[in-house]
Amino acid sequence: MAIGLIGEDGHMAEHAGNPGEIFLEFAQIGRQLKVTAVDAQTGVEVVVFGPVSTPQKSLQDLAVRKLKRRLEQLGH
To answer: 4, 6, 11, 37: which has the highest count of C-beta atoms within 10 A?
Structure first.
């Protein structure tokens, strides 16, 4: 399992809680990779799954897009 924090610019961030920052957690479950994305400011969380053969960056980007859409739906 790996956990990272990316800033609004898409690069790894050094601190948490600023607007636009996202926590990412990667966990392999069998032959699937689970990616959890959490907005650092609101705590809103989404999850995506994909085959372990999928590039990690692709699943990361998908999780971030899903989180941004969820935040828009919630009015954040």
So the answer is: 37
